[in-house]
Design brief:
There is one protein chain. Helix content is 61%, strand content 0%. The protein is an all-alpha fold.
């Protein structure tokens, strides 16, 4: 007998594939693949987004939520792991600093 987690995982993958296909047909663009390791800027961005996202990691039945499964698929075991990864790897420059540099370079 298959465990509920495996069934849920297959349903998650099926939905993910469908949404990616719809995105491609609507925009003509392909989404990048999941990045499960390394410090690629897309993975850092994902970690920062999901670290700040509200929502439980398990539903009322004790099964992992879509949020939990997405984090797992991207190589994070918890919201805290994603938050720590985000803090460690996000760009050190703030947008304000970038904006000031842009003005200084382009208006002197």
């Amino acid at each position: 007998m298959k465990s509920p987690v495996n069934i849920k995982e297959k349903a998650y993958e099926k939905q993910n594939k469908k949404m990616r296909s719809e995105y491609t047909s609507e925009t003509g663009k392909k989404l990048g693949k999941r990045l499960t390791k390394g410090t690629n800027k897309r993975r850092v961005s994902f970690a920062c987004r999901f670290a700040g996202m509200a929502g439980a990691m398990k539903n009322a039945k004790g099964e992992p939520t879509k949020k939990a499964m997405a984090l797992k698929k991207w190589g994070f075991g918890s919201v805290e792991a994603a938050r720590n990864f985000c803090q460690k790897n996000k760009s050190k420059k703030s947008w304000v600093h970038h904006f000031k540099n842009h003005l200084a370079v382009n208006h002197h």
